[in-house]
Amino acid sequence: MSTLSGMETLILTAIILLLTASWRLYQKRKYYCSVTSKLPTFYGIPFFGVAYQVFDVNKLFRIISAGNDVLKTATACAWVATTPYVLTVDPEVVKRVTTSPEFLHKATDLYTHFHNGVLNGIIVSPVKKWKTNRKAISPFLAHSNIIDMFPAFNENANNVKNKLAGLAGVGEQDIFTIIKECVLQLSFLTVLGIKIEEGTEKHKEILRVFNALVDHMKLDLWFGSLGLVFLSRTPRYKRIIKYLCDPVRSLIKEKLSRKGESEAVNSLENNQQTVIDLAVKSMRQGIFSEKDVEIESFTMFAASFETSASAAYTCLVMLAMHPEIQERVFQEVRSVFPDGVTDVKYDDLQKLRYLDMFVSEALRLVPPITYTGRQTVRDTELCPGVILPKGTQVFVPIYELHRCKEIWGPDSGSFNPDNFLPENIAKRHPYSYMPFSKGSRNCIGFRYAEISLRITLFYAVRNFKFSTTSKYEDIVFVPNITLSYKIPPLLSIETRAN
Ligand code: HEM
What we know:
The protein has 498 residues and is of the alpha+beta class. The protein is built from 18 helices and eleven strands. Mean pLDDT is 89; it is low at 262-266.
């Protein structure tokens, strides 16, 4: 009896592997047929699905938009490699996904990059842990605690103002770095109670390392979607995480060493409670482990820093690109602060309606977080007639929802704060707009974000006029961890006379 040659063995093995993979894919397609038989579905190429189309992240948003236009539908299914994802921009379905208890679990694949040992706090925690931990740290975002943060918000805005003043009158400049430097200090102070001295080597280094972390998370996300996340977990990545966590770890150690001291002791001069204070308190009560303290503190810091910096930069870019709107915002700010902005109080925030509309429009067109993803833990109805089997991942593309022509009209891509006139808001489904997500897994920090952003804008708009040669129509967005600009626009700054 003749034995198989090397080549024949290889071919036979390849055939067996292909048949096994085909059988598995067939089983999977059968498992999800209650979805794919009801929803329009992109199958793409067997085993690759539509993955080949999303390799170029710069084109991702255009591809999803084109998909929506082709399907003419608001809820669809797309196979990426061998996994089907349900996508929806139908506000009624979005409401169901963001508010029903059946959809509280985060989608596994869409958050691989958060599972790096420091960011796997409440953003991605399984439901039971998420409920306990969110409750434990929620006093950080309570109204009275936010009021105690006003001095820090004002100091941060004044810091941004002083740094912008240094760039006035010298042509187009990178202002994103300035904003990041200031917001980094604000997040360290308010979330962790750590004061980083301005302009020190340490300050610059933390920013550099944090940017490197975000770059690595991008890799994580892309490798993760191919099931190859280990390829991005390099020794350098581990060093980055260690560097960023070390100050948090030492602070926790220091706090824990203060045995017997009152739990009310906090790291700041006023009564403001930091996330570390609250987390250590939960540890003393046996609710948190030491690792929980570290992870929740770091998660809150990262969630507040990256998003807030991105939103502040976008608002200044949008002002620079829309001079008439900027003038209207300026006139309103001047009418409330005729003698300049020195110390913004809570009540001042209620007086600037046009600025509110402007900010809402900026977060509509450039939402820092572009999606939320959920996963069913049992067979669950998505909408009448569509049952999602256990394990189905549902993706709400916030960026696309905010630009959907059926909701926002044919000019949905144009920058128009009037979209947020009360009469126009009343005409729309409330789940058409969700820069901070919706439901009980929404952004826990949205009040902090809204207030600190507004205070920064009051100081900036009152003191400077912004302009740019970059055009709004030419912006290309890249879906990084937060929404990024392929080429971040540079801005010119002119100091206002009064
Ligand atoms: C303009 C700024 C901000 C935007 C646009 C924003 C947006 C969002 C969005 C869309 C989510 C939901 C993410 C998801 O479903 O995967 C979220 C969650 C979260 N955000 Fe924010 N955020 C901002 C600022 C902040 C700030 C300042 C903090 C903290 C002080 C914060 C802390 C968090 C946390 C901890 C979560 C997870 C909440 C949970 O799952 O229970 N965010 N944010």
